RecBCD enzyme subunit RecD
Amino acid sequence: MSLLRELDRINALRPLDDALANTLRRLDPDTPDSVLAAAALASLAVAQGHAGFDPAQPRLLVDAELAWPEADSWAQALAASRFVATPAAEDLQAEAAPLVFEHGLLYLRRYREYERRLALRLRAIAAAAMPETGIDALAPLFAQLFPDAARGDAQARAAALALRRNLLLVTGGPGTGKTTTIARLLALRIVQALQAGHPPPRIALAAPTGRAADRMAESLRRAVRQMESFGIDDALAALPGEASTLHRLLGVIPDAPRFRHHAGNPLPFDIVVVDEASMVDLPLMCKLAEAVADGAQLILLGDPDQLPSVEAGDVLAGILRAAGDGNTLRADDAAALAPLLGAAAVASAGADIAPAAEAAGPQTTLPLFPAEPARPALPAPPGLHGHRAHLTRGWRQSDSLQLAPLADAVRRGDTDDTLALLRAGSLANIHFHDGTDDPLAARGFDLLAHFRGLANAADPATALAGANRLRLLTALRDGPQGARGLNARIEAQLSGRRIGSPPAWFPGRLLLITENSYRHGLFNGDVGLCLFDASGALLAWFPGGSEGVRAFHPAALPAHESAFAMTVHKAQGSEFDEVWLQLPRQDARVLSRELLYTGLTRARTALHIAGSAEVIAAALGRHAGRVSGLGWRLGE
Ligand SMILES: Nc1ncnc2c1ncn2[C@@H]1O[C@H](COP(=O)(O)OP(=O)(O)OP(=O)(O)O)[C@@H](O)[C@H]1O
């Protein structure tokens, strides 16, 4: 049986994937079956979050014992097909073919182009020169902001690098001070401009979701308050008080795939800071990078251990592969930043990292002293080395929740450590419900009472604040431990209606918006709740607006579902005081260490993990990694 038929037989393909293969067959009935199957798989790959399909690892996509072609002959058949372009260089636009085969990956042409354009733009942003002057003059303020700079403080290194690197990656787990560091480095850049007699740089703060943007702005305002005694009021006044979603920043044009801002109409900002970069997919990151004005600085913040974006890409992981571990400085940066970082600059200047290519330069002139052996030109630093600072020290007050040791064991995929920590029960406010598969029947924990309480809140703002106090997170969408089934059961219990009847409107119903609606100002991932208004009308309330809450008639809402239970994927970018993380009874492919890590790091004050040791072990043994060529394109 042909591979395409076999894939159909096991229902591995979506109708869209099949349609692509069938179109190619119609256009050329002699197209080999292996090429048709690969085309369908390249389409499926995007739906599963990969940038392309790797014929050497087909089981990453379809985990089945099929008659998979041998990788080399499959690659040869692809390269020989008239439907597959094989560009001569990674920078070149591929000729007009529906598929591109490059560096071992088969791409849908559009995704190869996103990847190529993103890499080009990131390299251009990274190469742009920063103002060389004013670093010495910043030393007193820098010492105030980062008293531990000379002792290797990674936050200080991140801030100092922002004065040298036009593309900057600041990474770290929750509470490692990414936002605090951003506030301080932005203050430094503003002071630098003011000291040079320039206007302050125009700064944009953005995040992939509204909730993440709100959290970013909130953390930034707190970090600004901490700087109020430093005598830099002018600079603090120039810091933005709000953050927007990436879509809003780029300017959505209703019903068009293009944004208002792009390379031809760049963003009017000198510095663009993007939080939760791990959630940004390939097309969006490409459009963002292209919309950043020439010479403007792009700063990406993110936690590399979190789940990758739901849509195609794993962009942050690709960029970070090219950026190294973020613990070293390039030699030229170390020299320039020595007035700020002192001894730490020397200590963290990586021996393997050569000065910038422009500083070393190819030797085109005769050596001054011919007797001295000519030294070979130093190679350019690999990829984006020297553009990343990785923060590891946790700064959160952890009296109430002792998350760090568990998050670390999960991040490492260490099953023994993870289970030992969970079973010992000695981490403050972490509770392991071993083998519990029904969160609504858990002993000593009354989820329904919490949800019922929301309906009795004094006003919508109080109810919305209460809603963020506790959330039920699931690994899966479907199945008995999935968000959908649990929502149906919770709705039934709260509304008194039968399970399976259409969702009812009742006070206290939590809602999750599942599409972007610019008309309503409601976006995918926004959470609201139903409550009566003063006149007794049942309305759906969401945060925002001049009053702090906005009301909508339930019948007029964009696509939505109940939000008592939410998948970890949907909860990315949000935090809740208390989290109940419900794992499925049986292992499932979407379970991974990144999913567990993302789920448990949503908790601020208490965490409950429910599931079996076997399922936890299976999840820890799996990576949510994605196939992508971005790291390679950026010179990993
Ligand atoms: N250098 C520091 N000295 C003292 N407190 C700090 C420092 N850095 C961060 N903090 C504190 O640690 C907490 C977390 O910081 P911050 O919000 O900046 O972390 P984050 O990495 O942005 O977190 P998240 O992952 O939630 O976005 C805050 O209360 C902040 O005030």
Notes: Residues 383 and 635 are 4 Å apart (CA to CA). The first helix runs from residue 3 to 9. The chain is about 35% helix and 15% strand.
